[in-house]
Amino acid sequence: MDNSQQFARTTVLDVQTSGVSWSAVAAGAVTAAALTLLLIAFGAGLGLSAVSPWSGSGVSGSTFKVGTGIYLLVVAVMASAVGGYLAARLRTPWTGIHTNEVFFRDTAHGLISWAFATILSAAALGAATSNIVGGATQALGMGATQVAAQVGPTDLAVDNLFRADPAAAPATGAISGPDPARAEIGRLLTASFRDGGDLVPADRTYVARLVAARTGLSPADADKRVTEVIAETKQSLDKSRKAAAQLSLWLAASLLLGAFAASLAAVEGGQLRDGTWDDRKLTPRAL
Hints:
Number of strands: 2
Structural class: mainly alpha
Number of helices: 10
Strand order of the largest sheet: 1-2
Helix content: over 70%
Mean pLDDT: 75
Shape: rod-shaped
């Protein structure tokens, strides 16, 4: 018997059976999504216990960011590996399939399970994850989620601009109800920050004069305050932008590692399901 005849005997494909066992994929994906939620809740507790509002206590902000990123990688690998393993281990056995095709299908089962779990987590578990992290934050008395949603960077900038100086002369008068000047300055600052530039000279002069009239500062001090507030706000926005970019990179890395872990674990689960491992026949242990 030549090699072509032997290869033909070992590569018979069962065309009547689907190459994907969707029930096994769904089981692995749901398990991975639930385990992800569990690990995120556990990580939120560990992370918030390491953060302290007191100066000199707890971990630093940079350490906390790096630790959060590493924990995201660990969560992705653990949850995806379990989901991929179950997706391949619980699949329907295939008969008459070449070992290379079995290897590919097992790997595909792990990858599909990871993709299903990722979509499920983003669609159904996003709100649950936000509630876990936000509720734990509010329990510490920080309320960071609500504050961030209600107060924007331009609002804080306007508050700093119109902060009265106790040593300065009294302001020209108080305004009851909504202040149209504050809203106008807020729009000017928002437009300038969105474009990444600075206030035009005419707008800067107008804002400085309005700040001097409302706070009792001298024109020179009012102009200095406008310059300092704009610089501080830009720095804060730049830090937020960099933090969001770093979080996106950590999430992308965790997704890639999760896909790899799910595919690799699916290979092990499929081989154990068929009773083989490293080309060796596994014999069940007698009970």
